[in-house]
Amino acid sequence: MKSKIIRIPVSRSEREHNIHGTGYVPCNVSDRWLQFSDTYDKELNLVFADVMTLDHNEKPKKICTLCLDINELKAELAKIKPE
User: Largest CB tally within 10 Å, which of 20, 40, 49, 53?
Assistant: First the structure.
């Protein structure tokens, strides 16, 4: 018995999230993104995020790592009010 393969369309956004996995937050106007690490420093309350881009071979390249206070990050995000 032959099994039928049904292709399910996946958006570019879904495809990128699948490729980069958990912690991926894309920029909507460039090929850059934040890649949050699973690492969390409980003592200092820091979360780590790599600022990523694509190199000339279309491979992920880390620009830098940000060490962010999670409470400050949440507070600043809470101030943003979509209109």
Answer: 49
